[in-house]
## 1
Amino acid sequence: MPAQGGAVSQGLNGGCATCNTGGGSTEATPTPGRTGLVSAAPIAGPPKTWSTGLKKILAIRLDFPDLIDIRTSDAGQKMMDGVLRQKYHDSSYGKTDLQSTVTPVVYRLPHDAGYYATSNSIWTLIQNDATPLAAANYDLAAYDRIAFSFPSLKDVPGSTVRAMSHAQYGGKYMWLNGGGFGFYTVAHELGHTYGLRHANRWKVPDGNPVNSKGRSEEYADNFDIMGDTGDPTLRDFNPWFKSLLGWMDGHVQTVTVNGTYRVNRFDNTPAATGILALKIRKNNALDYWISYRLQLRGKSCYKGRSLYRLGTRRHHGNQ
Ligand SMILES: [Zn+2]
Ligand SMILES: [Zn+2]
């Protein structure tokens, strides 16, 4: 039991330094939970077809007449085909895979950077202007995910961009502000398009990780790709999130009676087999999730290896 408390992954939507999610058609308004232990909107996972199988990604590189990008596509393509693909393949236990295309061409948007950066509809404006440019060379309908990548608009005078990047929850589109194709940024935003929200931490005043006096800190699960800080390549998606995506079939044991149960390390693909998470009903709305990981031992402020997690019980209707 980690002294610093458990981690709670849940569905609050909020701003943070690295990414600004929402705006997608599937975004839900967060509502406080009834128990007081976790304030989370129930998360309905996307249809399994959305979060499993091969996903073709087109990353459209863009720049502006007054803010040009002289970088090549090499680094981005290498990252997408390398560590990003490996992470999604391993984390999903082979349930999903990525096939990425980073456009060698940098398409020049028709307006200066300030036109987009100062608009409250920045993401839509970029999407609308970029789509016909890329459509000259690519059949956009043939891709499962579309990323718009462009030089950072954060420091443009009057910029409305407070965050690095942006993605739709369970949607097709993401926007990579800065265009650097860093592993963490792309892995995190892609996670949003798969349907995930931020991985939060239940911060408690004592050693009890499920203390009801705790509070949820959005984004503060630093074990998780949907959290923040830490070594991103060592992080994984948590088993609850994986279950929402249809990646945990056969790997979750629901516990209803006292006993001793064995749970295998889940961040050890391809060797991870058998039961990788225990799910324990807390009440009508919440489950505890218990899992075991190794990769971040001693590398994280948590120090502990086991982790309690509260997951809102998902609705099974659409999966
Ligand atoms: Zn995010
Ligand atoms: Zn964010």
Note: Residues 1-18, 20-42, 298-307, 313-319 have pLDDT under 50 and may be disordered.
## 2
Amino acid sequence: MDKGIFITFEGIEGSGKTTQIKLLGERLKKQGLKVLTTYEPGDTDVGQKIRNILLEPEININPLCELILYFADRVQHVNEKIKPYLETGFIVICDRFTDSTVAYQGYARGVSIDIIKELNRILFNEFKPDLTILLDLPVIIGLKRNQQINKTDRFELEDLAFHDRVREGYLKLAEIEPERFFILDATKSQIELAEEIYKTIKLRFHL
Ligand SMILES: Nc1ncnc2c1ncn2[C@@H]1O[C@H](COP(=O)(O)OP(=O)(O)OP(=O)(O)O)[C@@H](O)[C@H]1O
Ligand SMILES: [Mg+2]
């Protein structure tokens, strides 16, 4: 059976994940490759309903409840979409994945990282991305970009210290698994970043 490639994009709000995924997906498709672009939370019918709860600005969620909703969404997403596409040889590019849960709910919100890792192990065992692109930039720049497009979900409304902990959390994760992560300076232009990402992926996966 063909085996696909699983690539995730991570980074704070406004770091350029969605922008770069679109550019990369289009470029790989032009090359004739089979590509699925997807996102978390929410890219299934069940996930849409969970996403509405998670990103609702006014809602008051217990941190463990929040954590489990993210995992619930991921179980549906991995089994309904990600794994079936990988099994038929697709390059699956996902906007946020487990590293977001560790960075936001763990490092930033303060839920025990051991609990998150244990839940992840129980639900997904060894399943993880082949490559994770981390778009790193100062929090203030990312949030300003999103303010300009009036994006205000529950996470944009968190304070700067929260987002700093997310950023630092991501950098720690990248330090723990340097071979899986590719860190980019996301203050660069969209075109420069797209080029670096494309080159890295071509080289790493011999495309
Ligand atoms: N390299 C860049 N330089 C300047 N602006 C950028 C760059 N990349 C993206 N932007 C702009 O910043 C805004 C946020 O980008 P984008 O939506 O891709 O970020 P994101 O990481 O997906 O954010 P979120 O986590 O909120 O979904 C958009 O208006 C986008 O056009
Ligand atoms: Mg986005």
Note: The chain has one domain: 5-205.
